[in-house]
Specification:
The chain is mainly alpha-helical. The protein contains 4 helices and 2 strands; from the N terminus they run ααβααβ. The protein is globular and about 45 Å long.
């Protein structure tokens, strides 16, 4: 079932959402100081491309620098990426088959707002160490 949902997701929303993260990552990598944002954006692009069967958890070693980086991220790119997920989620929820995909889009909003200090793990392993 996860594979089927991922294929439908890829066709209807995943490609475009991942493209948004890739563009944000490229822009972040232009300046040397923002490369950690670019790396986080590329990591989440892979998750946005194929989300079912995986989940996002907080890294236990994330500290104050991740928090400060997330504040900067929200101001620069997080708001736009979260809006992208919100709009896509609402549009997907207009159809019955799109409701699970829309809900998955809404679950991506928190990680689009604060990607630093997060890690993507398989759903059957929600606590990474």
């Amino acid at each position: 079932m996860k594979t089927l949902l991922n294929i439908i997701w890829l066709v209807l929303a995943g490609f475009w959402l991942a493209l948004g993260y890739v563009i944000a990552g490229i822009i972040a990598c232009i300046l040397i100081i923002t490369i950690p944002f670019g790396i986080a954006s590329f990591r989440i692009a892979g998750y946005a491309l194929w989300p079912f069967g995986r989940t996002v958890v907080s890294k236990p070693t994330a500290g104050v620098m991740s928090f400060l980086g997330n504040v900067i991220w929200v101001l620069i790119a997080g708001i736009w990426l979260a809006l992208e997920h919100l709009i896509t989620g609402v549009l997907l929820c207009l159809t019955i088959i799109g409701i699970p995909l829309g809900i998955a889009n809404f679950k991506l909003i928190p990680v689009s707002l604060a990607p630093l200090g997060k890690q993507i793990v398989p759903s059957d392993q929600p606590f990474a160490g």
